Write the structure tokens for this entry.
Amino acid sequence: MIVKLVIILVVLKGWGEMQRNTAGIDAGGSLIKMVYQENERMHFKKFPINEQDSAISWLKLSVPSLKVSLTGGKSSVIQKKYFPESVIIPEFQATYEGTRFLLEAENKSIGETYLIVNIGTGTSWHVVKGDKVERILGSGIGGGTFTGLGSLLTKVRGYHQLTVLTEEGNKGNVDLMVKDIYESGESPISGELTAANFAKGIRLKSSEADRMASLSNMIAETIVLLTSQAATIHQVKSAVIIGSTTVGNNPLRQALESYMNMVGVTPVFLEKGEYCGAIGAHITV
């Protein structure tokens, strides 16, 4: 992780002489993510979106005389309230520019044609072909589903606490698995695959951790299914996974990786992928 961050800083060194005390802010549905450059170094910080007052105060105190560029669904609100002279970069453009920058900075070569799968509060798909990028698909399944539905299925609140709970669970206590249907018979596909999400309902005793494991798996399966279809239609083999939802969420990340490999799509995870929008806003101005 340290080596990759050093690579990012080295790539940025050439900008340092021209850009000082500049920041890119990605204000989304759940988080406000900041990337600011000071003295040839790039720094990263994020806050819950409902703490935007504290976030902006911290940023202004840390880096006085800021030049700011914004992106994300709440960027106009942030601009009006805090940075009236800032520039707003279209969200999809910022996402693409940030992704392209990090692929180069982290030395990940995947060719000129690939998908970007941005798993934030919801999930958005983009296809990249050379210098052209197009948003092709969106889904309400994402990090908001994980935290929102997770809080309904359990008594736990908070993203981190829910990810910890997920790791302790067994989805097989909630989901109907292929092996449950075929039992001792020979299955035409892996018995560990899901036949129906949450199908066991209250028939079997399950814990909150089991329900979270099932939820996380359902989110992963849905995202991979849509990614596979998009990859087939657009004839691509790789998908760059970005956004904040996979950060610190090992069960979700592992499931995404496993299922994508299963359907023939190579997943690429970026070290700082959750900051693609903020980076893109920062470097586009």
The domain at 2-98+275-284 is CATH 3.30.420.40 (Nucleotidyltransferase; domain 5). The mean pLDDT is 90. The chain has two domains: 2-98+275-284, 143-269.
